[in-house]
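Priority: medium. Attachment 1 of 2:
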């Protein structure tokens, strides 16, 4: 089982780093999309935001995959943080993308920054080897 955990830890390290980088690109695409809005069409009909929307779906899928990796690695800290990450990316991001409710929509970029922060922290920890013991089958980090 230790070998499987090590393989999943390597997959986790790459995925979490890619998610963090994708979050930076996502912020760029949001700005590009907003400043590319033309005409009086509704926000849902603005094609300038399509790349932002598509990458958001990829990030959300990636967070689910890193959560599955954390379950296989069986590290309590990773399980908790990747679950929070997946909930933010999958549930909160969709719930706060409401053009008809600007006060709710204001939380969309805030949760996006939280996703960036958590994924960057987890990527740094993974590449610095802080979670390696949990991946090798030792007692989960707390």
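Attachment 2 of 2:
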């Amino acid at each position: 089982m230790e070998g499987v955990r090590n393989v999943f830890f390597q997959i986790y390290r790459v995925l979490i780093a890619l998610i963090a980088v994708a979050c930076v690109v996502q912020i760029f695409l949001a700005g590009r999309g907003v400043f590319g809005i033309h005409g009086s069409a509704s926000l849902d009909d603005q094609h300038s935001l399509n790349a932002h929307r598509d990458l958001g779906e990829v990030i959300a899928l990636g967070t689910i995959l890193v959560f599955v990796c954390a379950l296989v690695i069986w590290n309590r800290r990773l399980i908790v943080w990747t679950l929070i990450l997946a909930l933010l990316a999958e549930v909160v991001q969709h719930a706060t993308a409401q053009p008809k409710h600007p006060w709710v929509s204001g939380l969309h970029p805030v949760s996006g920054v939280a996703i960036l922060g958590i994924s960057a922290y987890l990527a740094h920890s993974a590449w610095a080897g802080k979670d390696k013991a949990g991946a090798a089958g030792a007692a989960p980090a707390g």
